[in-house]
Amino acid sequence: MHTEEGRRTTADPARRPRSVTVAVVLIVLGAPTAATTAAGPGQAGQLMVLLVVACLWCAVRAGRGRRTARTAVVCLLAAVFVLAAAFAFDDPLYGGATLLLALALAGPGAALLYRPAARAYVRARSEGRRREPHARRAAVRAGRAAGADPVAVAVGNASLLGVGYLLLGRRGAFWGPRW
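RE: above sequence
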C-alpha cells in the first residue's frame, strides 16, 4: 500500500493478510494429502479422518484470527504427519513421495500462520472480540439491543411467544394456565 508521495504505509492489522489465506489453503491441501498414506487398517483410517477433519476445522478458524485454533492446527498437523509416517514407510515409493508432498504443502502453511503480519492480525482480532461484549452489555443497559431492528424484534418475540408456546403444548403467558 503506497501513498501519493510513494512512501510505503503499514497495512491495517484487522484486515486478513494474504499470508494467512495462503496458509489456510496450503493446510487444507496438505492435511488430506498426508491422510491418503494411512489407508491401511480401519482403526487408523478412522483416526486419521478424525484428525484431518479437526485439522481442517481449526485451519478455517485460524484463518479467521483465532489464536487457539492456530496452535491447535499446528499440533493436529504434527499428529497427522506422525500417524501418516508410520504407514508411509510400508510403501516407500508411493507413501514416502505422498508424505513429502503433503509436508511440502502443509509445512509452509503452518509457518505462515506465525509470520509477523499473521500475528498482528490475530492480535487485532482477539482485541476486537474482547471489546465486543462490553459494547453489547452497554447497549443492553441503555435499553436497546445492539444493532437490532425494533420491528424485527417485536415480530420475533410475538412469534416465539405465540406459536412457540402452542408448539410446546402450552397456552402460554397470554392465555392463562395450561390446558
